[in-house]
Amino acid sequence: GEDRFRRALYPNWRRTTPYPSMTTFDAPSREFCAIRRIQTNTPLQALVTLNDPVYIEAAQGLARRVLREGGDSQQSRVTFAVELCLGRPPQDAETIALTRLYQQTQNRLQETPEDAKSLAAEPIGPPEEGQDVTELAAWTVVSNVLLNLDEFLMRP
């Protein structure tokens, strides 16, 4: 509903059952003050960033922004998305890989429009008027990949 973003600022924390995503990313116990966090990198963290509804919604939001502000061509949109996420222009190999991912995903989603609709709209909500659902879903996949990059998650 309309209050779903309001709760994110004030989550209900229980010491005995922390938020699962925070546990996966080794959040310290709230029982004691922690001066430094232990850094780990496990496959579970990648699974969280690829599948948790919070991260899917962030990818959907990024995809909508890319379509709205990224220009008209695939290359300009890839450049915009990479610069937005990583703070630098993409390398040629990255542009090629992300463009290929977009095209393959769009081709696959055109065969299954229900999957495209689900990927583009759940949980964030229906697409803006006039947006192609298949295109939006394909950019959601590309955005999810960008948001899962080590360079995005672990900036120096």
What does it look like?
It is a single chain. The chain has helices at residues 20-24, 43-51, 53-69, 74-86, 92-111, 113-121, 133-147, 150-153. Helices cover 59% and strands 0% of the residues. 20% of the residues are buried. The longest helix is centred in the middle third of the chain and has 20 residues, at 92-111. The protein is mostly helical and 156 residues long.
Primary descriptors:
156 residues; mainly alpha; 8 helices; 0% strand
Q: Count of helical segments?
A: 8
Distance between the termini: 37 Å
Largest sheet: none
Element order: H for helix, E for strand: HHHHHHHH
Ranges where pLDDT stays below 50 over 5 or more residues in a row are none
Helix-strand makeup class: mainly alpha
Which percent range describes the beta-strand content? Answer: under 5%
Q: How would you describe the shape?
A: globular
Q: Helix coverage percent of residues? A: 55-70%
Radius of gyration: 17 Å
Q: Give the mean pLDDT.
A: 86
Strands, total number: 0
What layout of secondary structure does this protein have?
Blueprint: H1 20-24, H2 43-51, H3 53-69, H4 74-86, H5 92-111, H6 113-121, H7 133-147, H8 150-153
